[in-house]
Amino acid sequence: MGRHYLKKGEQPSASSSPQLDVASIVKGVIDDVRQNGDAAVSKYSQKFDKWEPKKLSQKEIDEAIAALPKQVVDDIKEAQKNVRIFAEAQKESLKDFEVEMQPGVFLGQKNIPINTTGAYIPGGRYPLLASAHMTILTAKVAGVKHVTAMTPPIAGKIPNGTVAAMHLAGADEIHILGGVQAIAAMACGTETIKKVDFLAGPGNAFVAEGKKQLYGEIGIDLFAGPTEILVVADEHADPFTVATDILSQAEHGPDSPTTIITTSERVARKSMEIIDELLKGLPTAALAGTSYKTLGDVVVVDSLDEAYKLADEYAAEHVQILTQRPREALEKMTAYGAIFLGEKTCVSYGDKCIGTNHVLPTKKAAKYTGGLWVGKFLRTVTYQEVKNEKASGELGRLCGRASRAENFEGHARSGDLRAQKYLGDKYEWIKDYETSEVGKARM
């Protein structure tokens, strides 16, 4: 295989910074919240955010929205319109159905919304308005009855833009509360915060670990790590576009992997040169530059087929195709969170406004799962009804044989009972019961 790495990410050394035992810290917070409820939530919010947890009133929500420029509110509504249209199309693709397997035997499937969902909207470095669209709005389109939404304060203040996005997306209650204490409060419940059935939304390492530890007690959307971008480029790709789009995702944080796979050494080297130049004037260069330096790969391959094969090995969260025939990737690739086809399409559109969901699998999870979508908020359940006596009896005979092949006598007898009732079969165990004292008394 012709793979030539012009740049290979330098993993930070274990000694470069103090290592936190994230799992133990998170477990301690969860156990404390479980035991002490609101008092524990308040304690950790004060410790980590210097903030007293607050459920916003309608007046406070209205004030937050009123504090924003009209253009910001209009843009939130426009982005949410796109998310809503796509989510509604996803829901429309999921059909309830009923099929008559044989005369009188009906099997059916229903998609029932989760009753209560918690949506975590990260804050920290940036007010991530778009995460409100992706989690809250998608849940409401699915039919979730009650969405509890939480986001941390930013610099000790209510993040007005995030609050507006949460409210316009349909949140039923909004709390200014962040970190693992917010995750624990929603998952475990407290005196003032009702326990939810499902948690959705991205977050930092502590939030992700909290979801991991609570999974099973409640449902979660997926385990999502730091943002990833992979660009597949041919010799016709514009290196300036490659560089710009790589840095668009690298700025998420210092731990966001970036990858360029190209058939052209010229494109690769020029893209690297431009990235170095653009970092000089990028306000978020401290984050983007760290990601690119420590976790950035640039690979030259012999062919696009090899590029697609290598891209599937990375199984990146975001894959951007900058080639002459971008739709070829839809047929050649199988492992990605979301794919962005052609120069007119960029990953940032997916992050912010185009309508597809930006909560996506990372760390090669795209090999086995997709991202957040309407279906994650629905429970696909089945039902069955046998109305025909003959059919029930024949199923009883089959059930008896199949169950005894597995040594499940109790299962078999449920089938025997129907076979005797509706087909007149005779079974020794039923005769023994009918001739017993209990059986005689019943008759």
Automatic annotation (TrEMBL):
Active site as annotated: E317, H318
Protein keywords: Amino-acid biosynthesis, Histidine biosynthesis, Metal-binding, NAD, Oxidoreductase, Zinc
PROSITE patterns on file: HISOL_DEHYDROGENASE (PS00611)
Enzymatic class: oxidoreductase
Superkingdom in the source lineage: Eukaryota
Known cofactor(s): Zn(2+)
Full protein name: Histidinol dehydrogenase
